[in-house]
Design goal:
It comes from Nonomuraea harbinensis. This protein is about 40% helix and about 30% strand. The chain is of the alpha/beta class and about 290 residues long. It has an eight-stranded mixed beta sheet, sandwiched between helices. A two-stranded antiparallel sheet has the order 3-4.
């Protein structure tokens, strides 16, 4: 009886959030260890399907760093990172494109579609969803060439909007085409933020491998529950290189019309549901 009462209490707690976010578009960046642990992969798919059945409109933008690294190692192709971004040679670009679109995306789609005919895969190349230009990394104040890495300069969200209107769950790979026909690897955090802005999303959620934004890592491991854009910008120079693209994505989103952006620990089962449907929430919320 106690278990039944606790379940009923959890459902009632979710009611105002179900009312508030019914019909809301939520862009979820999915990556990190949550993509390599089988149990976490299944719980993520369940969360996405739950959101869809609860009346939200989830969009998944995925990375695939661990899978790309494994395939590059298998082929003997060297891969390095500069300022948190993968240096992408033409040889590496072929692998990135193949793994993201042909392997990782298909795996996510398959997990979601165990629950019904929901997920549809897209590359940023499809229907000119993402148009990008070559991006340089900034190291010690100077630009550094990092190969076929792109900065999104235009988003055509019509295909994603059509899928959402049809009750589908778009699953988007961070590959983009340039106006010159060049293919670019786009950081998935950046792609998720650009798509959230273009869709006028109600939330951007970035799943990562830490609990959220720490107040003063590594000395202080308290997670910041909520932070404004100006304060986050002030903290940016102190962040680790891995967190920079994630927090830049949140900044981009909230400064361009997305009401709130979140960084959550993707290692926690059902972290998406905890954030959206409970009073406490988890992780760090970024607001304008």
């Amino acid at each position: 009886m106690r278990d039944a009462q606790e379940k009923a209490a959890a459902l009632i707690e979710a009611l105002p959030w179900l009312e508030r976010f019914h019909g809301a578009t939520v862009v979820i960046k999915y990556g990190g260890n949550a993509m390599t642990d089988e149990a976490l992969k299944e719980s993520f798919a369940e969360d996405v399907v739950f959101l869809r059945h609860a009346g939200l409109r989830p969009v998944v933008v995925h990375g695939g760093g661990p899978q790309i690294n494994a395939h590059l190692d298998k082929l003997g192709i060297e891969s390095t990172f500069t300022a948190g971004l993968r240096v992408t040679t033409p040889e590496a670009m072929q692998v990135v494109r193949m793994v993201l679109v042909g392997q990782v995306g298909r795996d996510i789609i398959g997990l979601i579609n165990r629950h019904g005919p929901f997920a549809v895969g897209l590359s940023g190349e499809d229907a000119h969803l993402f148009t990008a230009e070559r991006k340089s990394a900034i190291v010690d104040g100077s630009p550094v060439d990092i190969g076929q890495v792109g900065e999104i300069v235009k988003v055509e969200p019509g295909t994603v909007e059509a899928l959402l209107s049809d009750g589908r769950v778009p699953v988007v790979s961070g590959i983009a085409r340039g106006a010159d026909g060049e293919i670019y690897n786009v950081n998935a955090d950046t792609a998720a933020a650009a798509l959230a802005v273009a869709l006028k999303a109600d939330k951007l959620i970035v799943l990562t491998d830490v609990e959220g934004l720490y107040a003063n890592w590594p000395d202080d491991t308290d997670v910041i529950d909520e932070i404004g854009a100006a304060e986050l910008e002030r903290l940016m120079p102190t962040l680790s290189s891995g967190m920079v693209p994630k927090m830049e994505a949140c900044l981009t989103a909230v400064r361009n019309g997305v009401p709130q952006a979140h960084v959550l620990d993707g290692r926690v089962p059902h972290s998406l549901l905890q954030e959206i449907f409970t009073n406490e929430g988890i992780g760090t919320m970024v607001v304008p």
